[in-house]
Amino acid sequence: MWWSPRPASQQVQATTPVPAQAFRFAAPVLPTPVALIVARWLARLVVLVVKLPFRFPVAVAAAVASFLVWRAFGWITVAVAWSLVDVGLLVWWRRWPVSFRRWVGLRVLAAWRWWWVYARQWQPVLVVAGLAETYQERQYLPRIRRVTCSAWADRVRVRLVAGTTPADFENRVAELAHGFGAPSCRVTVLGPRDVVLEFPRWDTLAEPIAALDVPTVPDLGALPVGLQEDGTPWRLRLHGTHVLVVGVTGSGKGSVLWSAIRAMLPALEDGTAQVWAVDPKRMELSYGRSLFARYADTGEAAVALLEEAVAQMRERAERYAGRQRSHTPTTEDPFTVVVLDEVAFLTAYHPDRDVRRRAENAIATLTSQGRSVGFCVLAALQDPRKEVMNLRNLFPDKIALRLDEASQVDMVLGEGARDRGANAHLIDSTLPGVAFVRLEGSPMPVRVRAAYVSDDDIDTMTANHAPTSSSGLCAVGGAA
Ligand SMILES: Nc1ncnc2c1ncn2[C@@H]1O[C@H](COP(=O)(O)OP(=O)(O)O)[C@@H](O)[C@H]1O
Ligand SMILES: [Mg+2]
Question: Which of 167, 202, 237 is the last residue before a domain boundary?
């Protein structure tokens, strides 16, 4: 029917009217003429046909070419042509697998994932996750603009509904990940109403990473210590900052400390950097003792070491005052990294109150004043709760390895980190060294894995790279 069967009727209120309500206002309902609906469908079809060659140029070109060949030469020619194309693709795949993967494999995969996973499940998942908006009884869904695949993840570019924010997605990454059957989900903002949801297809960090090659010229602002989830190196800044590594026993704190030390080896060797190590458990750092300029393994010795670091830092600051605003590592003024394993042993668990207080004071002084004069504290900690470590906030950079409780994630990585997908409490216990970090300039947590520096690696390091200048080499207290 092309006309409306009845004149405009009144909308009937579905709920029972309240008897005391004297007036009820109801909006008149005007049934849309069928002609308009059909016209709208046709318009959409035209838009789709116009857009299709731009969205899927290869597929459309192949279909059109096949059709033309079929009309001109018959179906046998089409079959032969397609067989030739298949053989060509086969040769491409065998001879140049990398470019085949990039230009064909991942694109076909993206088209498949777009249709099979995202387009099909988009509405139910978003509605159940609470990401669909309703306005005047109409539902508005964010729209998928594009799906691309990398070797390890799907990237779904989404246009947001006007009036919503990327934070709505960031707060529902768990729902989205489970909804689309991915191990995790991360949200990146590209621009206004333009976000990318990244869904890994498998865990790229499942295999342990062997100790990385020692760089010939170490960059103390970006030491390679492992890999990021996307396969690129995870670089850790030490110069100009302090780093706190948090994780339960067995989470792999040692591998972060050792990977950082390993990446600095040439600088330790030529004396432009020094490591001062404190190892209350005597299990972690004692193994590579000859690499360290100072070493302490008892409470008293550790406090003496820390106070000496403070004294040197003050002396340096005095010399620099008014003459120099930043530190350049030299053999006279080496970059000094104070590595503290199990720092809570000093600040919370040591039986001597005086040791606890002095250690805490020294660490607070180093972390608050040491950055610009070339002192860095790299500390490992099991329990991030405030009672145990109230110096947490003095460390600008933090690394969250496997944690005990969900509430600890935000304590370590800052507010909102867990909502943005840093599920450090869910890291599998079979994956030591896996962590979440926040890289410079981005609020988004990144999943990384530290390379594993084995005892054999440490043996090789001490044999080949022990500091040559023995001037700085002296143990403090009980560590001789
Ligand atoms: N990055 C890593 N990759 C693979 N295995 C690791 C890694 N880090 C640690 N491990 C394994 O986990 C064990 C515990 O690591 P460790 O560094 O001692 O933990 P923590 O110091 O946090 O208690 C190690 O003995 C090692 O076998
Ligand atoms: Mg340890």
Answer: 202
- Ligand 1 pocket residue status of 423, Cβ below 6 Å: no
pLDDT at position 478: 37
* pLDDT at residue number 324: 79
- On the CB side of 111, how many CA atoms lie within 13 Å of its CA? 10
pLDDT at site 474? 37
| pLDDT for residue 469 | 52
Q: What angle do CA 250, 252, 258 make, to 5 degrees?
A: 135
333: helix, strand or coil: coil
354 class by beta-carbon count within 10 Å (0-12 exposed, 13-18 middle, 19+ buried): exposed
pLDDT for residue 92: 95
Same domain, 397 and 305: yes
Candidate of 255, 281, 378 to mutate for ligand 1, largest count of ligand atoms within 8 Å of Cβ: 255
Asked, for residue 21, whether it belongs to a domain, the answer is no
Q: Which of 320, 293, 321 lies closest to 308, judged by CA?
A: 293
Residue-level pLDDT at 388: 65
3-state secondary structure of 28: strand
CATH number at residue 462: 3.40.50.300
Q: Do residues 194 and 343 share a domain?
A: no
List for the chain the helix, strand, coil content (%; round to 5): 45, 20, 40
**CA distances to 66, 87, 148, 149, 400 from 62, in Å:** 6, 16, 21, 22, 50
Task: Give the model's pLDDT for residue 17.
Answer: 56
SS3 397: strand
- Residue closest via CA to ligand 1's atom 4 equals 208
Cβ pair 315, 332 in contact under 8 A? no
Decide: 408 in ligand 1 pocket, CB within 6 A: no
E-strand ranges in 107-232 read: 133-135, 138-140, 143-149, 153-159, 186-191, 194-200, 223-228
Q: What are phi and psi of 312, to 5 degrees?
A: -65, -40
CB of 247 closer than 8 Å to CB of 435:
yes
**Which ligand has an atom closest to residue 401 CA?**
1
Positions in the chain whose pLDDT score sits under 50: 1-12, 470-480
* Residue 143 bridge partners (DSSP): 159
* Closest ligand by atom to 208 CA: 1
Total count of domains within the chain? 3
Q: How far is the CA of 47 from the centre of ligand 2 (A)?
A: 61
311 CA to centre of ligand 1 in angstroms: 34
pLDDT at residue 283, rounded to an integer: 82
Q: How far is the CA of 266 from the centre of ligand 1 (A)?
A: 24
Full domain range(s) for residue 62: 43-95
